[in-house]
TrEMBL record:
GO terms for biological process: carbohydrate catabolic process. The active site is at residue 361. This is 6-phospho-beta-glucosidase. Gene3D superfamilies: Glycosidases (3.20.20.80). It is an enzyme of class 3 (hydrolase). Its EC number is 3.2.1.-, 3.2.1.86. One of its GO terms (molecular function) is 6-phospho-beta-glucosidase activity. Belongs to the glycosyl hydrolase 1 family. It comes from Buttiauxella agrestis ATCC 33320.
Length: 464
């Protein structure tokens, strides 16, 4: 009988800037996310008095977290992935003393999770950083930001060392290549050399956070977080296969540095070929040797790669510029649905690193229809998640060590890519629309009870 391990962690994943709201409450500073009213892929826009952003209130998790956590507990969650808003702890990013009200909020949040026996997994920086660090220092383009981040990391490790034993450094760290403002706090018009220098500073900061975590919380585990951008060759032409290898390396490079503690040879060649000379100090090289304990990643879809420039041109503008796979169906947002790709990715990462893996994001965004009885018949979501979890089980059978699964958006939240609520992921419906109308009332979708049964049976109820 194929089965999930008894220690497997089941749950969901949310991000502070997409659920909390309370955007200037209790001393919180302004983050890059607060200045991206239309989503993460744009440069920031300075706010004017009276400007409205859906994320300002989001789903008001900041005030409603006890109610939401009770619903997660009802589903049987053993893990909830959350993020700390850096600006709640250091509003401008460069303060020497933290904001006590921000620390106290997360104390209450973690206490509430403990009350329901839900293990927190905490991301230090999830698609946001203090706007003060961007405006006054140049974001991650400035080496000084490493110091500010390490101070922040050490502050929260020290404060929450008895409450949080699972940590992640940067959310989808490789996304900086596609959205530099969101990833590293620099302009979308930055050169490749500037982007990779900022990424280097972030990789050093990540490693210093790993070192600090091991020092301050010896019984904790800390991982990285990759956007699982798996791509296949469009054909078996050697040129397509070679191009695919290079494309996969573009994002695996981050895992290589964080797992192995140094830059791989293929990236050194890439820098040489493109005239990129990074400023890397000896202390940087030493810092990078502090490697992660496990690998976490998101997986939503796969894509194809070809050396054919004409086909590549047609693909420009879709997410990650991937060429569509002719053998796969797509979601309403054009994301191709590929459950087997998750098994392939799990095996690929396990074969490459031999480190435990954790799927911390996977889900289906859709335009849900609320019925008169207050429910949502989201069989399409059930089907998507069922088929992906079956492939996780197959990967475990293949010998891959998988620690757990936290689906993205167990409750409806403001989407990252477009900052809208109409793209819904949750098992729990939130009554709010893209214009900010609604009561914020929560209700259970059909998938709520489906996921509850999956967790209760440790995956035995999955079909397939």
């Amino acid at each position: 009988m194929k089965a999930f391990p008894k220690t497997f962690l089941w749950g969901g994943a949310i991000a502070a800037n997409q659920v909390e709201g309370a955007w200037l409450e209790d001393g919180k500073g302004v983050s890059t996310s607060d200045l991206q009213p239309n989503g993460v892929l744009s440069d920031t826009v300075e706010r004017k008095p009276g400007d409205f952003g859906l994320k300002d209130i989001a789903i008001d998790f900041y005030h409603r977290y006890p109610e939401d956590i009770a619903l997660f507990a009802e589903m049987g969650f053993s893990c909830l992935r959350v993020s700390i808003a850096w600006t709640r702890i250091f509003p401008n990013g460069d303060e020497t003393q933290p904001n006590e009200a921000g620390l106290a909020y997360y104390d209450r949040l973690f206490d509430e999770l403990a009350k329901h026996n839900i293990t927190p997994m905490v991301t230090l920086s999830h698609y946001e950083m203090p706007w003060g660090l961007v405006k006054n220092y140049g974001g991650w383009g400035n080496r000084e930001t490493i110091t500010f981040f390490e101070r922040y990391a050490r502050t929260v490790f020290t404060r929450f060392k008895s409450k949080v034993k699972l940590w992640l450094t940067f959310n989808e760290i490789n996304m900086a290549l596609h959205a530099p403002m969101t990833g590293v706090g620099i302009s979308e018009t930055s050169s490749k050399a500037e982007i990779y220098q900022a990424i280097h500073h972030q990789l050093v900061a990540s490693a210093l956070a790993v070192k600090a975590c091991h020092e301050i919380i010896p019984d904790a585990r800390i991982g990285n977080m990759l956007l699982g951008g798996l791509v296949y060759p469009l054909s078996c032409k050697p040129e397509d296969v070679l191009e695919t290898m290079q494309e996969n390396r573009n994002w695996l490079f981050f895992g290589d540095v964080q797992c192995r503690g140094e830059y791989p040879g293929y990236m050194l060649r890439y820098f040489r070929d493109n005239g990129i000379k990074l400023e890397i100090s000896e202390s940087d090289r030493e810092a990078l040797k502090a490697t992660i304990d496990f690998i976490s990643f998101s997986y939503y879809m796969s894509g194809c790669v070809t050396a054919d420039e004409e086909l590549n041109e047609k693909a420009r503008g879709n997410i990650l510029n991937m060429v569509p796979n002719p053998h796969l169906a797509s979601s309403e947002w054009g994301w191709q649905i590929d459950p087997i790709g998750l098994r392939i990715l799990l095996n690929k990462l396990w074969d490459r690193y031999q480190k435990p893996l954790f799927i911390v994001e996977n889900g289906l965004g859709a335009k849900d229809k609320l019925e008169a009885d207050g429910t949502v018949h989201d069989d399409y979501r059930i089907s998507y998640l069922n088929d992906h979890l079956v492939q996780v089980r197959e990967a475990i059978e293949d010998g891959v060590e998988v620690l757990g699964y936290t689906c993205w958006g167990p409750i409806d939240l403001v989407s990252a890519s477009k900052a809208e609520l109409s793209k819904r992921y949750g098992f729990i419906y939130v009554d709010r629309d893209d214009k900010g109308n609604g009561t914020l009332a929560r209700s259970r979708k059909k998938s709520f009870n489906w996921y509850k049964e999956v967790i209760a049976t440790n995956g035995a109820s999955l079909k397939g």
